[in-house]
Design goal:
Layout: E1 12-18, H1 22-33, E2 38-41, E3 53-56, E4 60-63, H2 72-80, H3 83-86, E5 89-92, E6 95-98, E7 103-106, H4 110-118, H5 125-136, H6 148-155, H7 160-174, H8 182-195, E8 197-200, H9 203-217, E9 221-223, E10 228-234, E11 237-243, E12 246-255, H10 259-267, H11 274-281, E13 288-296, E14 309-313, H12 320-324, E15 330-336, E16 349-356, H13 366-384, H14 391-394, E17 395-401, H15 403-410, H16 424-434, E18 438-440, H17 450-472
Parallel strand pairs: 1-2, 1-12, 2-9, 6-14, 12-18
Antiparallel strand pairs: 3-4, 5-8, 6-7, 10-11, 11-12, 13-16, 13-17, 14-15, 15-16
Bound molecules: flavin-adenine dinucleotide.
């Protein structure tokens, strides 16, 4: 008989969270901590969503999306998770750029970027200072008609090299383009510039294990291999979900599933106003990614000056289309030195990431798909030779992930790495107005994606849910 992953589940919860990405887990944790009865349902066999990892024989562990996040993670983890987790967040010191326009190493903060822009790039100090202040001063309510490209043109007219320095890492970090609203760039860029790039020491496996323990301590009922096929709603609002063929009732649903999948697959467009459906149809998915995971033989030593994060490109100019092209010219290498997992075996791993279009990987025959993956691996090793000479001699294990891999494991439509584009935010926020008790928390726009954005969006939505529950049960004394 197949195992029942819902064994022992109650028939009713105050909140059901669909999906255990960082937004879903954070919402669940806050609501559980506030004393609400919470069920967290994850279709995969482990928690974390895109914040995940995998093991291979020989003691190798690969992180999928642990490349870097802003210092704000420290505060968010301390407040909404625990000190133990927050204390493992450490700075990455060597951020490298290597492309036909410039090669440099930076700590990726305002002070060091000011030095680089004024000395190496010879930009007047006043322009640099005004640019940083403008970016820092941006917030959600600002004019959205100004694009990032126009913002750069205002402060650095005609300076393609400066645009590349300022934009390439952010495009890599969240798929944003020069055509996106400038506020999406300004907020994310300023978050990084505050204090540089940070990472979780111990690896994603350690982080998610600690988060899982915290969820348990807060009485969140966590279930893996539980695929929600339907969110049940009626005229009064959310009623429950159908998961693994069983109906479970609830007062609220927080969907951490892809926004478009939530609206069109889990609920169904007939349950929304026509105008809302039209608006939701306009929401574009963000791009996807390819990755190549390379584990070095035990004892391999790579000089740490090679970099922690290395933005490499052979493209003569910065162009968004080039960053997405199957004809890869840009790769971001993450170096995981043995200190990444200080308590594990002394291992070094390198992950190469490139933004990608789902369409370049769909419609291939199985043979073509395998050949394309092999080509991705070989060309990546070729590119890495420049930074780690004779790298093929040191590599013990190598494999690739494509947009199909991301779609398969997270159910993100078209393997979107960062959920939806900016217009998704308004649709996500409007869900409870359409269907009382229905919320979405997860990568939307550019601001609410990435590790920090997802966690912070989980916090915002948990507060909304808490308020709704408190309104319906005023006798409850505890809140978030
Ligand atoms: C290759 C790559 C590299 C990245 N690098 C970085 C980085 O360096 N720094 C950074 O900050 N961010 C990075 N990101 C982005 C970051 O990982 C994500 O933005 C963030 O983790 C998304 O969290 P989320 O809460 O939106 O949910 P997701 O991680 O998308 O998780 C959604 C969860 O919902 C589950 N689910 C979906 N549908 C159902 C269903 N019907 N029933 C049950 N469960 C369901 C999925 O299985 C999944 O677990 C990267 C992403 C990728 C792909």
């Amino acid at each position: 008989m197949p195992r029942d992953f819902l064994q022992g589940c109650a028939d009713y919860y105050d909140v059901i969270v669909i999906g255990s990405g960082l937004a879903g887990m954070t919402s669940a944790n806050i609501l559980g901590r506030a004393g609400h009865r919470v069920l967290l349902l994850e279709q995969h066999y482990k928690l974390g969503g895109l914040a995940t990892w995998f093991r291979r024989p020989g003691g190798h562990i690969f992180d999928i999306s642990l490349h870097g996040f802003p210092v704000g993670m420290l505060k968010s983890c301390r407040r909404y998770w625990n000190n133990d987790i927050a204390s493992r967040i450490v700075q990455l010191k060597n951020i490298r750029f290597d492309n036909p326009m410039f090669s440099l190493t930076t700590t990726f903060n305002r002070e060091d970027f000011t030095r680089l822009l004024t000395t190496d790039f010879q930009v007047p100090a006043q322009n640099v200072s005004d640019f940083f202040d403008t970016a820092r001063g941006m917030n959600f309510y600002d004019d959205q008609s100004l694009t990032t490209g126009e913002l750069f043109e205002r402060f650095f007219p005609g300076r393609e090299d400066v645009v590349r320095l300022l934009m390439e890492p952010i495009t890599y970090a969240n798929g944003s383009t020069l055509e996106d609203p400038a506020i999406t760039y300004g907020i994310v860029f300023s978050n990084f510039m505050a204090k540089g790039v940070y990472i979780y020491e111990g690896g994603t496996d350690d982080l998610i294990t600690r988060m899982q323990a915290e969820l348990k301590a807060n009485n969140v009922d966590c279930r893996i291999r539980c695929d929600v096929s339907r969110i049940e709603v009626d005229a009064s609002g959310v009623q429950g979900v159908v998961v693994n063929g069983r109906s479970i009732r609830c007062g609220c649903v927080v969907s951490n599933s892809n926004l478009n999948a939530t609206v069109f697959n889990l609920v169904g467009e007939d349950k929304f106003d026509r105008s809302f459906v039209d608006q939701a149809r306009q929401v574009r998915l963000n791009n996807s990614s390819t990755q190549v995971y390379m584990a070095m033989k035990e004892g391999t030593e790579i000089d740490e000056s090679t970099g922690d994060l290395l933005f490499s490109s052979t493209a003569p100019l910065f162009r968004t289309e080039a960053l997405l092209s199957r004809n890869i010219t840009s790769r971001t290498f993450s170096f995981y030195y043995p200190r990444t997992r200080p308590h594990g075996k002394s291992r070094t791993a390198i992950v190469s990431s490139t933004n990608a279009n789902f369409s370049d990987w769909s419609g291939l025959t199985p043979d073509e798909y395998e050949a394309s993956k092999q080509d991705l691996i070989e060309t990546t090793l070729d590119a890495l030779e420049k930074y780690v000479p004779n790298v093929r001699d040191y590599v013990e294990h190598v494999e690739a992930a494509t947009p199909h891999t991301f779609e398969h494991y997270t159910k993100h439509l078209s393997g979107a790495s960062f959920g939806t584009k900016f217009e998704g935010l308004a649709v996500s926020r409007a869900l409870p107005e359409q269907i009382p008790g229905l919320y979405h928390a997860g990568s939307v726009g550019i601001i609410m994606s990435g590790w920090l954005g997802a966690i912070n969006y989980g916090v915002i939505v948990a507060n909304d849910v808490d308020q709704r529950i408190m309104r319906s049960r005023p006798s409850l004394s505890k809140s978030c």
